[in-house]
């Protein structure tokens, strides 16, 4: 490989999940199916919430925002991967790689913040039910989502600007199916000490901070539920946050699993395979998790599908 700074015309090679030619049709079909299910499922959630006035509440407002972010998050990665398999090309331009990395970090951060905001919403609903609508007013809900966007945009911009200062070999091979930040930093031949510091400090702040807030919210929620005298009351209170708790467990569990597997095995291929869980599988499962346990949402979905069938 030739040594030199990458310019806008230089290219990276995304090696994907497997280089075996006979596996490419299987991978293409699998990821296309998961992508279509993700987009359709999350789009149905958004349409159901927007079309049913009974669902115009803070909880469903945040859920529809999460569904939108999940569509964008998956769309940052999967279409390019499918295009590369279909055209039998592994190429992604330097500008394309930086752009993909920017939007990946942006929407991953938004996922993180929205899950935290939803945990706070459940905390207020269960611990302060009489003041719920006063505290979670439309102005506060809009402000929380806006702050999530601003913070994620600035953080993604910072990380991409840090990568832009690095130098790479020409036609460098990325053992992944998308331009992942940690992989990019590892592949640079210039000094990456500052990048690693910013990356790890940012991970602690952007992932660790929200996770601590979620844990604290659920500590208060469990304490409040424990104080409810009747078993039926406890079940009803817990059922309102069970779906969110499952989604949080999936998101953080799979994300942590990726970095633990890559740290233990030191293998890029195992890291890429594990990344499928939180980049594709989790956004695909979210609509099922929220709709299957929620009678209001199921009713709105049936009404929406019925209206579409009539038209």
Overview of this protein structure:
- This protein is mainly alpha-helical and 311 residues long.
- The chain has a single domain, classed as Up-down Bundle (Rhopdopsin 7-helix transmembrane proteins), CATH 1.20.1070.
- It has eleven helices and three strands, in the order βαααβαααβααααα.
- A three-stranded mixed β-sheet has the order 2-1-3.
- α2 runs antiparallel to α10, α4 runs antiparallel to α9 and α8 packs antiparallel against α9.
- The longest helix has 35 residues.
- The radius of gyration is 21 Å and the shape is globular.
- The N and C termini lie far apart (59 Å).
Counting structural domains, the number is 1
User: Averaging pLDDT over every residue, what do you get?
Assistant: 87
Q: Helical stretch count? A: 11
Tell me the series of helices and strands, N- to C-terminal: EHHHEHHHEHHHHH
**Kindly, what is the distance between the CA atoms of the first and last residues, rounded to a whole number of angstroms?**
59 Å
Shape: globular
Which strand order spans the largest sheet, edge to edge or round the barrel? Answer: 2-1-3
